[in-house]
Design goal:
By secondary structure, this protein is α+β, with helices and mostly antiparallel strands. It has 7 helices and 17 strands. The longest helix is centred in the N-terminal third of the chain and has 19 residues. InterPro entries: NERD. It comes from Hibiscus trionum (Flower of an hour). Pfam families: NERD. This is NERD domain-containing protein.
Amino acid sequence: MWLEIICGFIFYRFFRRFFYGSDDVSDIETSDFNAVFSVANRLEKLYGGNVYVGLRIPDADTGSRQNIDILLVTKGEAAVISVKNLAGFVSVNEDGSWTCDGGSTRAVCHPDPVSEAKEQASVLESYVEQRGLPVPEGCFSYKVVIPNPKFRTFYKKFPSEVITYDQWVQLKPEPKSMFSGWIKSAFRGGKKEMQESFQQQLNFILSTAPMWDRMELKDNKYVLGEFLDFKGKQEDILALGIIKRSKVSRLIIQKISMFGLAHSKVQVLYSTRDYRSSGASASEWKEVTVRPSTEVIFQPQNSTKVHKFKLSSVTSLSLSA
């Protein structure tokens, strides 16, 4: 009996590795990344505008970079959104930090999320001004969104900047005043709407700002981080040598045939990155055919470990400038 179990386990591991790619796909935790993209997609559907995910804004004071989960820019409003995918009972300490007790795991203390979001908005404002665009007072608001349905708390006095899960699921689109009730307050007190020209300049600056690379895996899983290289047969690596960050903005991985015996087709979008004008000046699609066993070498955000993902497990890859 034990022999049958062991043989079955070995067969399962072989089957999974052969058909679904490297073990890194199942090992890596994508829930936090998925939560960020889920929030971004819902905000875009509710309020429109431009949504920027995974910004890495240089902080001149510290010499480091501030990671911003989401920045939402609409007519008259801009909001830094920090997504906290917390599950379990959350309590707020005297210093503003949060303690999350997941029950089965030990309690984890998180720095004050509101202070962090406020600092991100401040760094972003300084960055935009350094890029030559004066920022009106109160232009950037900030919010902390908790989208996890397993979030629980006895705490009743969260700051107004915190959007708990119950509040998050109740948000509804409001065509005329899109953020009425939770972001619009940042623009009260006689502050005027951002002029259209300011919004256009802001969107251009943000579209050319440093960002994390984005990889989408099968089953709608996302990973933010840094694309490092490809690994595989020499002929495949040579074929993929045309993919350079300075020229390529996105790769689309087409479906492979049954049992993964055929080559994968990789469609590469070439974009000439011209920072003197808004948008790309030229683009074209080209196809490169390589083996499905070819691997993408990728280092996720906030991880010291480099992961390998087979192309057969990847849906798309977006590269920052």
